[in-house]
C-alpha cells in the first residue's frame, strides 16, 4: 500500500461526506441518536465540520461536512479542514460519489504533509483506506512530487545551496535511473553559460547548471526551473523585510523537480529533460554591478539595471540551451517577480504563453484538479520597455509597470525554436495554514500541468 493510504482493515471506521443539503435526510435515516449527536456537536454539514457518532466512547461512524458550492469555491480542500482533529483511527470512505471521493482522497493525502527536519512536527494520526475507484498510484505520484517541492522550498538556505540542490536532483536521478550531468564554477564560462556564472560568481558556493534526462521514447518535454538558492539582491541589496523569504527563491527548481518526480513515478511515456541553473546571488568583490552589460549564451547583450533581477538572467542561459535541441513542449517555472503577486495574490500561479491550445489545456486541467492558474498577456507593445538601446535587452525596466509581463517577454527572447513554450511566475509559498496546505513551501501549477500533459503531448 502507498504511503498516502492505509491497508484495508475490518476495524475501519465508516466515513461519510455529507453536503449541507443532504444533512437533514442523512441524520433522519440514522435515527434519533444521530440527530441528537448532531445537535450536541452543532453539526450541519458545513464544509469541514466533523460529526463523531460514538458507542461506548469509540467512534463507530464519522461524517464530514461537504458544505455547499459557495463554501467549496471559497475554501479549497476545505473538506479536510478538521483532519488534525480526527480520531486516531483508520477510516473507510463510503456512500460518496466519485468526484467527492477523488477530491477527498487527494486532499487527505496532501494534508498529511509536515516539515519535521529540524523540530518534531507530528503528522495527523488518522489514516484513510484508498477508496474504491481511486487510482492510488497516481495520487502517490502527485503527493510524492508535491512533498518534494515543499521540502526543497522549506529547507533554509544554509542547508539548501547550489550543491545541496544538485544533490537533491542526483537523488531523484538515482531513484528513477535518469542521466544527470552538472557544469560547475569556471567550467560554466568554458561551456558558454556566462549569465549563470556571472550571477553566482560572488558566492563561495559555486554556481552550476544541472541537466537531468529520463526516458527514451515519446514526445520531448523540457522543464526549466529557477534555482536561486538565496537572493540578497546583490549590490542592489534587498531590505531586510524583502530578504526574509528568499530561501524560497529556488522555488522554480523545486517545482520542476517535483513535477519531474510525478512524471517519472507515473512512468509517463515522454523524453524528459530538466534544466536547473543553481546559484546564490551574493555580495562580494566579484559581484556583478548595475550598468554592467553582459553577453548571454544566445549572443544577446543585457544591460543590468538592477542586480536584484537576476532570476531571468540565469534562466536566459538555461532556456537558450533547452531551445538548441528539438523540443515538443517547454515549461519554465520561477519565483520571478513581486509584480505577479500584486496582480493575482499568493494563491494563483500566473502563466504566459503564445500558444492558445496550450493555454486552454492548462486552464482546463487547473479547474479540473483545483490548482488555480491564470494566463497573463505577452503584450507586444511592452517589448520596447525591455530594449534599453545601449544593449539588446534591459533586465529591469524603469517605471514599475507590468513587471511580470516584461520579465516574461525577456525570457521569451531566448526561446525562438520551440513553439509550445509556457512560463509560470509562481509564488511557491503558503502564507498561512490552509486545508491540505500547511504554512510554508507549496507547489503551484504542477498538479495542473501533470494533469494536462497527456492531452498536451497527445499521449
Automatic annotation (TrEMBL):
A Pfam family this chain is assigned to: Peptidase_M17_N_1
Keyword Cytoplasm in annotation: no
Enzyme class: hydrolase
Domain of life: Bacteria
Matches recorded under CDD domains: Peptidase_M17
Domain Cytosol aminopeptidase stretches: 306-313
Record-linked InterPro entries: Leucine_aapep/pepB, Macro_dom-like, Peptidase_M17_C, Peptidase_M17_N_1
One MF term in the entry's GO annotations: manganese ion binding
Gene3D superfamilies from the UniProt entry: Leucine Aminopeptidase, subunit E, domain 1 (3.40.220.10), Zn peptidases (3.40.630.10)
EC number: 3.4.11.1
Manganese is among the record's keywords: yes
A GO CC annotation given for this chain: cytoplasm
GO biological process: proteolysis
Entry keyword set: Aminopeptidase, Hydrolase, Manganese, Protease
Family membership noted in the UniProt record: Belongs to the peptidase M17 family.
Descriptive protein name: Cytosol aminopeptidase PepA
Organism: Planktomarina temperata RCA23
